Amino acid sequence: MTRNKNTLECASGAHERDLAHGGAFLGALNMLPLCLSVLPWGILAGSMAVQSGLTLWQSIGMSAIVFAGAAQLVTLGLHMSGASALTIIVSVFLITAQHFLYGLNLRGYVSTLRKRHRLPIGFLLTDELFALSSASKIKSQLTPGYLIGAGLAFYLSWNLFSLLGIFTAASVPDLSRYHLDFSIVATFAAIVIPMIRKISVLSGVLFSLLTSMLLSYFHVGGAIVIAGVSGMFFSSFVARLRKEAP
User: Fold this and answer.
1) How many helices and strands in the chain, by DSSP H and E?
2) Where along the chain do its domains lie?
3) 21-63, pLDDT tens digit by residue?
4) CB–CB of 91/222 below 8 Å?
5) What kind and span of H or E run contains 177?
6) By 3-state DSSP, what share of the chain in percent is helix, strand and coil, each rounded to 5?
7) pTM value?
8) pLDDT, tens digit, 9 for 90 and up, residues 122-139
9) What is the Cα–Cα distance from 14 to 35, expressed in whole angstroms?
10) Nearest to 102 by CA among 127, 120, 85
11) Residues whose CB falls within 8 Å of the CB of residue 121, separated by 6 or more in sequence, listed in order
């Protein structure tokens, strides 16, 4: 009995290791297009960190620890404009609030994992990783190895591109004039478009787009946040109206 028990424990441990490491290369490979799409965005974030007065190591640490493109750009922009710490904290909270939804959506896949797998997946969870996991047609593919491999590939790419921006800022001042921030729009377009598979989702996206353009035209504060939340409610309304399956 003891021998059989040990054999089962060994088999279980081997299965867990396979589950943890399996698919890491595939995850990194699937994430590669999204990694390349944020090249201008990362360069812009790195250069803005230097221009805002951060030291070399502070600039590197911001990308390595914060690891949130939109939050970094907003934080740096507010810091350069002299905004208070409270304003920066509230702004970043609103901008990154969608991660609560990402976590809830992925809860079914990661809730049964051990803490040593959940924590890195939580840290590496970005818009890009969420989009990649949501677009995966084979749900059994979403192993810890796949998610960590994809997230780690994006993390390393983001820090590499940010580092490039940090060193570029010294020789090419004011990179913002080259409108590298347009890559943010391109990146989110690449994330959102593959996820449009229902009329309700398409309706929500179009509603958010038109609302953000209208509010921005009239210089309404928080236009993007308002448009995003409104789009979600409108998408839910259309889904209920059409009685779409979840």
Assistant:
1) 13, 0
2) 2-180, 196-246
3) 558 888 899 999 888 888 888 888 888 888 888 888 999 999 9
4) no
5) none
6) 80, 0, 20
7) 0.72
8) 999 988 888 888 776 656
9) 32
10) 127
11) 106, 110, 113, 144, 147, 148, 151
